[in-house]
Amino acid sequence: MSKTKKEFGFKIGTDPEFTLTMQGRKVDARQTMELMLHNKKDLKASGSGFDVKNYGNIGWDGANSTGEVRPKPSNIPGEVVTNMGAMFKALTDNIKLCDLSTISEFSSIGGHIHLEIPKGEKWTSEKKNTTHRRLASFYLPILIAENKTNLNLRLKQGYGSIKDQRIENKFTYEDGTPGYTLEFRCPSAEWLTTPKIAEATLAYFGVVYNEIINHPKNFAKFNDIVYKSDKQGDALQTLAIMEFDLLTNSLLSKAKKYIRTFEMYEAYKDQIEYIFNPKQVIKDKQKANYNIAEGWNLILKTMPKKNQILSSKTKLLKIKTEKDFDNLKNVMNIHYNDDTNVATFAEALKDRVAAFNWKLKNNYYIFGIRKGIDNIIAKNLNREYLTGEKQIETTLDLEFVDRLFEKMNEKFSNTVDTRTVSTIDFITGKPKDNRDSVIIIGIPYDMRVKENIKHFLNLVWSLEKGEIKGKKMNMEKLKDDYNQPLPEQGKVYKILTKQAEQQEEVIIIDQNSTSLRNHQTALGQMAQEVF
User: Fold this and answer.
1) Cα–Cα 20 to 30 A to 344, which of 13, 59, 368, 404?
2) Neighbours of 268 (CB within 10 A)
3) Is the CB of residue 12 less than 8 Å from the CB of residue 206?
């Protein structure tokens, strides 16, 4: 087979990580994949994941909670990207409800790249370090295009240092000779966000590595860009993170000048020039929301229509026969307690999420409220009311509804990931409060007994559509009933404290007492008349 102009004399491999997320929170990669990918056509359980025939293996890393893709290596970067794309498609075809994040929001994830060491060569520690420094010195354009918040998070967790590299025995040649790779472990997983960024990144490193191992004398001319010590390497990385433009632009200009003289530059000119435009790379990552599912056009983020969500059980049963609803429902963040028929409402929502691949924005916690309260009450963790507040007419009503929701919040707290309610906006780098996306819903007793689910589903649809905004209670409109007699205190307060029942008992006793007095008076009149 003749060598194409884009074929390197070594293979490029990679085992980058990613995070499976749903409803703004991380889900366990191993648990989710084992649940959703078993017994699927063209997928075979193997090691720490599933083999996708002819393309590689997709699964989880050593920590199990983080996803990892291991495409079949190739001498051509575009083929490696094709292999990755096939595996991402296999994953998202079967786990449509999840997004695939490339940022270290929930755990540090890296975009490790493997470059084949020439067959039979045994590199000394000095050669390994020299090769890595040369490669890392040209890492600057990719480093500049990485999210600074993401970089800082990884570094704080002990990952992503410019010094991070190792040699691994990753494969065996046909004649039994062990095959080794130089693993470049510095980059984050962000380069996975789109296939264009992925191919450009692999091609860029391939061109630089090709020059290092095949033209070492030429490469020796570029000593003014290659850092000499780990301390200098750390300084280079710090410059990029701190966006010290004067020096980074100077180094970037040198990198452009030199790489345009490399042997394989012309073969990968388009990809390399794209990498040399870090502002565009950043825009492309942000446009895809650092989400592989979006960046690779694997899932269209569409919201089902209201009539679909309110559809009958008969329609859902037809869809149910075509999908593995039970497994799908196991990974959703919709929780509920054991109050009468609450499970019916929660399962109805889960059925529709599964049926229509409905990617929920919010996390839902559902419980039952007492008989006598007419309408659903819903609040978020920002203590804002979303519906049902019109039933609250007095200060005692408000106090005891708030107490009820605080109690339910505590009950569900073991299922709430604290990183879900307080995260980082990776575009601004500032803290992001997501408490408005955690919603607790109280379903009235009569609604639960009658299984009147449509009102509940309509509420969730409106919340997901963004039609309902949280609001604080207007205290001025509430009647102050703290020191009022029981009959004049709030209806909701009396229901929640069971005082409504006590009041009914008092009325019955009073009525009985009146009847008895009337009866005694009548008997007395009769006696007078007789005698």
Assistant:
1) 404
2) 26
3) yes
Token digits of residue 441 = 């819903």
N-term to C-term CA, the chain: 132
Domain ranges of the chain: 12-295, 306-477, 498-531
Greatest alpha-carbon span in the chain: 138
Return the number of other C-beta atoms located less than 10 Å from residue 308's C-beta: 16
3-state secondary structure 18-65: EEEEECCEECCHHHHHHHHHCCCCCEEECCCEEEECCCEEEEECCCCC
Of 213, 194, 191, 189, the C-alpha closest to 202 is 191
Structurally, at CATH architecture level, domain 12-295 sits in 2-Layer Sandwich (3.30)
* 3-state SS, residue 13: strand
Q: In Å, what is the CA distance from 428 to each residue of 92, 131, 286, 382, 424?
A: 29, 36, 11, 22, 8
136-194 per-position pLDDT tens digit? 999 989 999 999 989 888 988 889 999 999 999 989 999 999 999 999 999 999 999 99
- Pairing label, strands 438-443, 363-368: parallel
Mention every residue, 6+ apart, whose C-beta is less than 8 A from residue 260: none
Beta strands in 358-460 (DSSP E): 363-368, 377-380, 385-387, 422-424, 431-433, 438-443
If we measure between CA atoms, which residue out of 42, 99, 23, 44 comes closest to residue 67? 99
Only one residue has tokens 């692999």, namely 202
Distance CA 495, CA 482 (A): 16
Q: Convert 208-221 into a string of H (helix), E (strand) and C (coil).
A: HHHHHHHCHHHHHH
Q: CA 278 from chain center: how many Å? A: 25
The residue assigned the tokens 């075809």 is: 93
Q: Across all residues in the chain, what is the average pLDDT?
A: 87
Round to whole Å and give the CA distance between 264 and 154.
32
- Specify the DSSP element, H or E, that contains 167: strand 165-172
Enumerate the β-bridge partners of residue 432. 423
In this prediction, residue 109 carries a pLDDT of 94
DSSP 351-383: HHHHHTT---SSEEEEEE--TT--S-EEEETTS
Q: What's the CA gap between 526 and 529, in Å, rounded? A: 5
Distances (CA, A) of 129 to 111, 137, 163: 20, 12, 9
User: Cβ distance 386 to 470 under 8 Å?
Assistant: yes
Q: What is the DSSP letter of 222?
A: G
Question: Which neighbouring-strand residues pair with 99?
Answer: 21
The reported pLDDT for the residue numbered 430 is: 73
